[in-house]
Specification:
Largest sheet: none
Number of helices: 3
Order of helices and strands: HHH
Strand content: under 5%
Radius of gyration: 43 Å
Distance between the termini: 107 Å
Low-confidence stretches: none
Oligomer: single chain
Length: 121
């Protein structure tokens, strides 16, 4: 980030010693260290929150994509059944089917009913 070498740090330390004096310099260094620590922790927390938000957003987009994929697959699975049902409803019936629906029993069913009546008598 900053390109500060050892010589620059030494010059800053000598100026601080001259300006603050030997009594106040340790307290000033301690305070500066405390502030730098707080700044580092705050920056770390901000980075952590940003990373968490990015991870959450990625999970949301993945979940949305997965949900759309599942909906498409479900639609593909349901479509043949809907088309079959629609075809059965819209297809005109034959005369045999119409006669069966009007109450005329199928031949096999009629024979079974007749045998049951005979057995009951």
């Amino acid at each position: 980030m900053f390109d500060i070498g050892f010589s620059e740090l030494l010059i800053v330390a000598i100026v601080a010693l001259i300006v603050l004096g030997p009594e106040r310099l340790p307290k000033a260094v301690k305070t500066a260290g405390m502030w730098l620590g707080r700044i580092k922790r705050t920056m770390g927390n901000v980075q952590k929150e940003i990373s968490e938000e990015l991870r959450i957003e990625e999970m949301r987009s993945n979940a949305k994509a997965q949900q759309e994929k599942l909906e498409r697959e479900a639609d593909k699975m349901v479509r043949p059944f809907n088309e079959t049902l629609r075809d059965e409803i819209l297809t005109p019936r034959s005369s045999e089917a119409a006669a069966t629906d009007k109450g005329a029993p199928e031949p096999a069913v009629a024979e079974t009913v007749a045998q049951a009546k005979n057995d009951a008598q």
